[in-house]
Amino acid sequence: MKFIVDQENCIGCGACEATCPEVFELDGDKSQVILTPVPGNLEDSAIEAEEGCPVGAISHV
């Protein structure tokens, strides 16, 4: 699974990194994906981070 952070919508709140630090990391004031593709054992956590994003800036394919 591949996750994407929409840099225009990201507000840099850090919720994704707090939920799944193996996949998401704040870089300055924006989040970025640091592990692609996301291995199966981290997919549930990454999806939880996606669902918890307050502005819907995270998606996956």
Describe the structure.
The protein is 30% helix and 23% strand. The strands form two sheets. A two-stranded antiparallel ribbon has the order 1-4. Strands 2-3 form a two-stranded antiparallel sheet. The protein is α+β, with helices and mostly antiparallel strands and 61 residues long. It contains two helices and four strands. The model has no long low-confidence stretch (mean pLDDT 98). It has a domain at 1-31. The chain has helices spanning 15-19, 40-52, and strands at residues 3-5, 24-27, 30-33, 58-60.
Radius of gyration: 10 Å
Spell the H/E element sequence. EHEEHE
Neighbour order of strands in the largest sheet: 1-4
Approximately how much beta-strand content do the residues carry?
Answer: 15-25%
Shape: globular
- Share of helix among residues? 25-40%
Tally of alpha and pi helices: 2
Largest sheet: 2 strands, antiparallel
N- and C-termini, Cα separation: 6 Å
Mean pLDDT over the full residue set = 98
Name the structural class: alpha+beta
Question: Segments where pLDDT lies below 50 for 5+ residues?
Answer: none
Q: How many runs of DSSP E, i.e. beta strands? A: 4
